[in-house]
């Protein structure tokens, strides 16, 4: 589904990631952890084609990203739902319009998908906030709206970068339950987080693989979690 | 061509959801509207100037080319005989439709601006003038000169070519300047729209990032901007065109021939339809300018 093979990534300041190999199989659940600045967000971006590796290969749905045009990447991104820590909404659109944005850009009529949209709003608990603007939402509501937007196209993979970074414990548990639910529906889930308690809480419900970035390389984390 | 028209139609088709994606931006919207309006207004005047100059060049060329003057400068006792001899020659000259000697009153009227209206022609050695109107076949001026030189020694043929050429040339240049102005106006419109589109795209870099995140193609993003700027240019140019046409319409008409250029600055007949092309042309210019700007910006943001 998403495969990284001996991937390296360098900024002008130096090499951030080196010799990374990773395979996200269909229906799997992964955590990506590591200290701040270790390259978690960069690795996530490599996973959805927002960045190109400086060495090695990234394959999205069996296609090497180097062989893809920008529009090809855009089309593949409809199969990958992404949740950012800062959510990234269009501030002049309502919550519903933001959530329906992937439908809009893919040429599907958001009004025709009305019932699905309503179900999704209900699933993330934002029915009452449908017409609010993003600026009017709390941190947790924003994260849930971002999650709803990420899954509205029923993607094969959900990538969440620090989804619980700005929310309290209760809200992070609620978000986590939603992500676990998505995994049970067959979606591949990769969550980047430095919150180890979140990982521990998840392991009770789902078989998750925990990956840690340390010294520019990725390694399987084990019993210390 | 077919695919371009399809692309154009798809771009300009209303899509309420897509239209909402780009936030209404203040100054770039106003700049595009104002620039398109002002340029359309100027384009109407340039078009009127160009068409008026064209008409003038045509009229001068046509009228002057089809008339000539023979001046009989002979001693007073021979003037009548030489005038009649010249008229006889003209009667048998191919390409001459009609010819006649001007009367004393007509000659006095011609001289009145310089000598006043009470001029006694008898007291002055004024040459007699013969007006010659040519047929569409045109006469052979060189041949006529030779015949006149042989039979009417005091006759001088002036076919107006000496002063007709620079007048016609000046009018033609004026027409060319009018068209050059229209081209420049188009180029300035393109530059202004490009600036406004670049500013809008730069101000919406975050929006573009979000759209890309959710799977928007470059086409989708570019369309959102192209459609907006094209419609703004169309609306602005339509308003500018209407104001320009009203201004041309209310310009004073009539006057004598010396003022005919200034008072004739306007449109005649089907030429009134030509300014209607300005708004769609402005929209086309905006379409291309925004498309190029959007493509370049999206390349840069990748």
List keywords for this structure.
heterodimer, A: 225 residues, alpha/beta, Rossmann fold, 4-stranded antiparallel beta sheet, B: 302 residues, alpha+beta, 2 domains, 69% helix
Helices and strands in order:
The complex is a heterodimer of chains A (225) and B (302).
Chain A: E1 2-11, E2 14-24, E3 29-33, H1 40-47, E4 55-60, E5 63-64, H2 70-77, E6 80-83, H3 95-99, H4 101-105, H5 114-123, H6 139-151, E7 157-161, H7 169-184, E8 188-192, H8 196-203, E9 209-214, E10 217-220
Parallel strand pairs in A: 3-8, 3-9, 6-7, 7-8
Antiparallel strand pairs in A: 1-2, 1-4, 4-5, 9-10
Chain B: H1 2-12, H2 16-21, H3 26-65, E1 67-72, H4 76-91, E2 96-101, H5 104-115, E3 128-134, H6 141-151, E4 155-158, H7 161-203, H8 205-213, H9 218-249, H10 260-263, H11 278-300
- Low-pLDDT residue intervals, each spanning 5 or more residues of chain B: none
In DSSP terms (H or I, runs of 4 or more residues), the helix count of chain B works out at 11
- Which oligomerization state do the chains in this entry correspond to? heterodimer
**CATH homologous group name of the domain at 2-88 and 156-220 in chain A:** P-loop containing nucleotide triphosphate hydrolases
In the sheet with the most strands of chain A, the strands line up as: 6-7-8-3-9-10
Q: Roughly what percent helix of chain A?
A: 25-40%
The description of the largest β-sheet of chain A is:
6 strands, mixed
What CATH calls the topology of the domain at 2-88 and 156-220 in chain A is: Rossmann fold
Mean pLDDT of chain B: 84
Taken as a percent bin, the fraction of beta residues of chain A is 25-35%
Most extensive contact: A-B, 26 and 21 residues
Globally, the shape of chain B reads rod-shaped
Class of secondary structure makeup of chain A:
alpha/beta
């Amino acid at each position: 589904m998403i495969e990284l093979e001996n991937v390296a990534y360098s900024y002008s300041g130096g090499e951030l990631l080196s010799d990374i190999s990773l395979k996200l199989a269909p229906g799997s659940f992964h955590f990506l952890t590591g200290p701040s600045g270790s390259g978690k967000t960069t690795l996530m971006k490599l996973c959805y084609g927002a960045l190109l590796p400086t060495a090695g290969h990234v394959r999205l749905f069996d296609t090497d990203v180097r062989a893809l045009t920008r529009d090809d990447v855009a089309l593949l991104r409809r199969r990958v739902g992404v949740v950012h820590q800062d959510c990234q909404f269009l501030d002049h659109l309502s919550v519903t319009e933001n959530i329906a944005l992937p439908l809009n850009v893919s040429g599907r009529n958001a009004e025709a998908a009305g019932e699905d949209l309503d179900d999704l709003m209900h699933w993330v608990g934002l029915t009452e906030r449908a017409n609010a603007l993003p600026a009017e939402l709390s941190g947790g509501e924003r994260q849930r709206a971002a999650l709803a937007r990420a899954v509205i196209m029923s993607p094969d993979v959900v990538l969440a970068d620090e989804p619980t970074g700005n929310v309290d414990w209760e809200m992070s548990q609620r978000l986590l339950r939603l992500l676990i639910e998505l995994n049970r529906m067959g979606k591949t889930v990769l969550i980047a987080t430095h919150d180890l308690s979140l990982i521990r809480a998840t392991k009770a419900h789902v078989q998750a693989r925990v990956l840690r970035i340390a010294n520019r390389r990725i390694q399987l984390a084990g019993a210390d979690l | 061509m077919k695919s371009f028209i399809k692309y154009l139609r798809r771009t300009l088709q209303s899509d309420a959801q897509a239209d909402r994606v780009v936030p209404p931006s203040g100054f770039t919207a106003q700049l595009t509207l104002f620039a398109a309006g002002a340029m359309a207004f100027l384009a109407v005047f340039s078009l009127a100037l160009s068409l008026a100059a064209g008409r003038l060049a045509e009229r001068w060329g046509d009228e002057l080319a089809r008339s000539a003057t023979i001046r009989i400068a002979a001693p007073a006792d021979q003037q009548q005989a030489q005038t009649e001899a010249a008229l006889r020659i003209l009667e048998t000259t191919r390409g001459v439709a009609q010819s006649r000697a001007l009367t004393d009153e007509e000659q006095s009227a011609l001289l009145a601006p310089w000598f006043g209206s009470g001029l006694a022609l008898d007291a002055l050695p004024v040459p007699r003038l013969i007006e010659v109107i040519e047929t569409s076949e045109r006469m052979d001026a060189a041949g006529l000169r030779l015949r006149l030189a042989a039979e009417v020694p005091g006759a001088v043929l002036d076919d107006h070519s000496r002063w007709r050429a620079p007048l016609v040339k000046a009018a033609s240049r004026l027409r060319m300047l009018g068209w050059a102005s229209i081209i420049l106006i188009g180029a300035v419109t393109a530059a202004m729209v490009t600036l406004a589109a670049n500013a809008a795209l730069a101000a919406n870099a975050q929006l573009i990032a979000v759209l890309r995140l959710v799977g928007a193609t470059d086409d989708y993003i570019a369309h959102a901007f192209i459609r907006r700027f094209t419609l703004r240019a169309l609306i602005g140019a339509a308003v500018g065109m209407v104001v320009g046409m009203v201004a041309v319409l209310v310009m004073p008409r009539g006057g004598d021939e010396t003022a005919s250029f200034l008072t004739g600055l306007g449109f005649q007949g089907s030429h009134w339809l030509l300014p209607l092309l300005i708004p769609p042309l402005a929209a086309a210019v905006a379409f291309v300018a925004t498309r190029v700007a959007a493509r370049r910006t999206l390349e840069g943001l990748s």
